[in-house]
Design a protein that fits this description.
The chain is mainly α. It contains 15 helices and seven strands. The chain has a three-stranded antiparallel β-sheet with strand order 5-6-7, covered by helices on one side. Strands 1-2 form a two-stranded antiparallel ribbon. Strands 3-4 form a two-stranded antiparallel sheet. The termini are close together.
């Protein structure tokens, strides 16, 4: 069966398989470090409750999109920058966890503010913007306007596809020659918006572009040891590969931990949408490298191969993102050590990286690093860390709630 036809089938069977896998995985999973399961569950539930309490206190006064903290207070973007989807996404997850209607109301209002970005062809980050906000809104409310808007965003995203090189351009306006051949690992996380669009419209082109991009990234980013660079450059005219590079990592030969996490999660997700075994193998190789570089505290450093690693500044966001991908990997490969590793990371972040000791902090997760080379946001709080912490915990505590928001089914 072709990738396209297999993916465009109704997801009911896939959802049933995923639910079955979840049940068996949850029943058989060992707890990290032999810890008592009740203790792990209690720690994660307390962390989720803390995150929801923080949102309960802060969210009613938020009128824009948090992008990061300065002196523990959120700074904002009016249009959402590339992170705008994570704020309404957090609010949706808080609603699912708590049942409090105010979070649903706030999530809808926040998501609505992203409406102008549906037609933004100047960024690859439309998946980050519209999946946790508009796709989730449609999944939780059934209102067709959210689905239509997400499909429109996917239509904007595929305009950035370069057929000569088989990749989605990361940065710059479509007519701008600067960065025209630049591809980044982060884009793997924007591909699920395209899979969603194909599934909803029965138009295969969205998924075909997603698969082409993933295969290009797989071929060019992956090193023999399973590490990856942040950036890979191509000739935008011929599509010929030029070589690795970086912006947020230490160097073209290092391994930026958040990019590695995007890869673990992203390749696992494109496998779930296509059934392509090679994507799952790639996700495992990325995960195995990252896990081999984790320090005993189970919180990633900002770059696994920077000269001062492992004794370097942390990026808890890389940990919680990877934990979500690892939970997928455990289900798909039937290898419980991936789930154990995810639980260790989520538990470690919940015990050592939350802002519980601060009376002024507006975010939940501290010890995140946005862009170390630019000295921009070193060990601060970031909206995607708060989002993926809640997502990861919901996957563990009540997978059905996470599935309602983000679709954990597989073909």
């Amino acid at each position: 069966m072709s990738i396209t036809r297999r993916t465009l089938l109704t997801t009911a069977a896939g959802a049933a398989v995923a639910a079955s896998a979840s049940t068996s995985t949850a029943a058989s999973a060992a707890t990290p470090d032999g810890a008592d399961q009740a203790s792990v569950t209690r720690t994660l539930r307390q962390a989720a409750d803390y995150a929801v309490a923080k949102l309960r206190a802060v969210a009613p006064g938020v009128t824009a999109f948090p992008v990061g903290t300065k002196f523990e207070k959120w700074t904002y973007s009016q249009n959402g920058d590339w992170v705008g989807g994570f704020w309404p996404g957090q609010l949706w997850l808080a609603w699912l966890h708590s049942g409090e209607e105010q979070f649903k109301t706030l999530a809808l209002a926040s998501a609505e503010k992203l409406a102008p970005r549906r037609n933004d062809t100047g960024t690859h980050d439309l998946g980050f913007l519209f999946y946790p906000s508009w796709v989730t809104a449609w999944r939780l409310t059934g209102d067709e306007k959210w689905k239509a808007g997400a499909v429109q965003a996917a239509s904007s995203l595929i305009k950035r596809y370069n057929p000569a090189g088989g990749f989605i351009r990361a940065w710059g306006a479509l007519g701008d020659p600067n960065n025209a051949g630049r591809v980044i690992m982060d884009t793997m996380m924007n591909l699920d918006l395209l899979a969603f669009a194909s599934a909803q419209t029965q138009d295969p082109q969205y998924l075909e572009i997603a698969v082409a991009h993933a295969k290009t990234a797989q071929k060019n980013f992956l090193r023999p040891d399973g590490s990856t660079p942040h950036v890979f450059d191509f000739d935008p005219v011929t599509g010929a590969p030029i070589g690795p590079n970086t912006v947020q990592g230490y160097s073209p030969t290092s391994c930026w931990s958040r990019g590695q996490a995007w890869g673990v999660y992203g390749f696992t997700t494109i496998h779930r949408r296509t059934g392509d075994a090679e994507f799952l193998t790639t996700a495992r190789r990325l995960a195995d490298f990252a896990l081999s570089r984790l320090t005993p505290d189970h919180v990633p450093v900002w770059d696994y191969l920077a000269p001062q690693a492992p004794n370097d500044v942390k990026d808890a966001s890389a940990g919680v993102i990877m934990a979500c991908g690892l939970l997928d990997l455990a289900e798909l490969t039937h290898r419980p050590h991936y789930r154990e590793s995810a639980l260790r990371i989520l538990t470690a972040v919940s015990r050592t990286c939350l802002t519980t000791k601060s009376t002024r902090a507006e975010a939940s997760v501290a010890r995140c690093t946005r862009n170390r080379p630019a000295e921009d946001g070193v060990e601060v709080s970031l909206p995607y860390a708060d989002y993926y912490l809640l997502e990861g915990i919901l996957r563990v505590l009540d997978r059905r709630k996470a599935d309602r928001a983000i679709d954990l089914s597989s073909v």
